[in-house]
Structure formats: structure tokens, C-alpha cells
């Protein structure tokens, strides 16, 4: 089988190209797509542990620490010590972070609308359902290696 025919390759290419397009659009706001994913998750559930945030974003804790460091330098997020365990921290979005997220959501929606303009609503729904199933199955298989 040619690599171009591999569903894994096709999914990876689509994701990478979409991330590149978002990165171009977010560059004016000095925010990477990795930082965007963490900021968005914090806006959905503020005050979450770094461990839970790593799971929700799909990154390891080392990467989450690095991304939170960057978001803190930009004053978009902050970490506070867990009162029950001084070795762990909770991450919070700042007012500036929430404001930026609000400004970037329409840009993300515009990008997604432009790349899916030739896909019907029904096709988009099926695509999302299939990608969720693939992700869930992959997560299930990954648990065997953890």
C-alpha cells in the first residue's frame, strides 16, 4: 500500500495542515496552536490540575508544564499551589487569557468553516463520529502499553 493511501497518513496530514493554517491565523496574537489548545481547555474548565489538563489536551505532563510556562509569561494563565498537596498545582486562565480566547474562537470557527465548505453538514457529522471512534479505539489500545 502506498503511504498516500494509508488512513493514518491521511488523518495526520489533514491535522497537520489544519494546525498550520490555524498557526498562521494565530501568529498575529503571538499564540501557538499548542498554547491555544491548553488555553481553550482552561476556559472550558478553569482551576484544573496539570495532570488532568494533560489528559484533556492529549499531551504529556512535561509538555503541559512547558506550555503553561509560556502562557504564564504571556499573562494568559496562572498556576496556584494545591492547598491539599503543595507539590501539585492548579491551572487557571486569567482575564487576559479569557479575552484572547474569546477573540480567537471566531477565527478558529472561520478557518474550520473554510476548510469544510465543500463538505455537507451530514458528512461533517459522520466524519466527526468516525474520528471520535478512531480516537477512542486508539486510546483503548494505548492503555495496554501504559
Could you explain the architecture of this structure?
This protein has six helices and three strands. With 146 residues, the chain is mainly α. The protein has three domains: 29 residues; 72 residues, Winged helix-like DNA-binding domain superfamily/Winged helix DNA-binding domain (Arc Repressor Mutant, subunit A), CATH 1.10.10.10; 34 residues. A hairpin with a 2-residue loop joins strand 2 and strand 3. The model has no long low-confidence stretch (mean pLDDT 93). This is HTH marR-type domain-containing protein. Keywords: DNA-binding, Transcription, Transcription regulation.
Strand residue percentage: 5-15%
Distance between the termini: 30 Å
Under the CATH scheme, the architecture of the largest domain is Orthogonal Bundle
* Shape label: globular
Low-confidence parts: none
- Mean pLDDT rating: 93
* Elements, N to C (H/E): HHEHHEEHH
What is the helical fraction, as a range of percent? 55-70%
The structure class reads: mainly alpha
Quick overview of this protein structure:
This protein is mainly α. It folds into 3 domains: 1-29; 31-102, Arc Repressor Mutant, subunit A (Orthogonal Bundle), CATH 1.10.10.10; 113-146. Helix content is 66%, strand content 12%.
Brief descriptors of the model:
WH_DNA-bd_sf; globular; three-stranded antiparallel sheet; mainly alpha; Arc Repressor Mutant, subunit A; WH-like_DNA-bd_sf; 146 residues; DNA-binding; 3 domains; transcription; transcription regulation; 66% helix
Q: What secondary-structure arrangement, pairings included, does this model have?
A:
Blueprint: H1 7-26, H2 33-44, E1 48-49, H3 50-57, H4 61-73, E2 77-82, E3 85-93, H5 95-115, H6 121-142
Antiparallel strand pairs: 1-3, 2-3
Helix pairs in contact: 1-5, 2-4, 3-4
Amino acid at each position: 500500500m502506498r503511504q498516500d493511501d494509508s488512513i493514518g497518513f491521511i488523518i495526520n496530514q489533514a491535522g497537520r495542515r489544519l494546525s498550520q493554517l490555524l498557526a498562521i491565523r494565530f501568529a498575529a496574537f503571538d499564540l501557538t496552536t499548542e498554547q491555544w489548545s491548553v488555553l481553550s481547555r482552561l476556559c472550558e474548565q478553569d482551576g484544573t490540575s496539570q495532570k488532568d489538563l494533560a489528559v484533556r489536551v492529549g499531551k504529556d505532563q512535561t509538555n503541559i508544564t512547558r506550555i503553561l510556562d509560556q502562557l504564564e509569561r504571556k499573562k494568559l494563565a496562572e498556576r496556584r499551589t494545591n492547598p491539599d498537596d503543595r507539590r501539585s498545582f492548579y491551572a487557571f486562565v486569567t482575564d487576559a487569557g479569557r479575552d484572547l480566547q474569546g477573540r480567537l474562537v471566531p477565527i478558529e470557527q472561520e478557518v474550520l468553516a473554510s476548510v469544510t465548505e465543500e463538505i455537507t453538514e451530514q458528512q461533517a457529522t459522520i466524519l466527526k463520529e468516525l474520528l471520535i471512534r478512531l480516537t477512542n479505539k486508539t486510546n483503548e489500545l494505548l492503555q495496554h502499553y501504559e
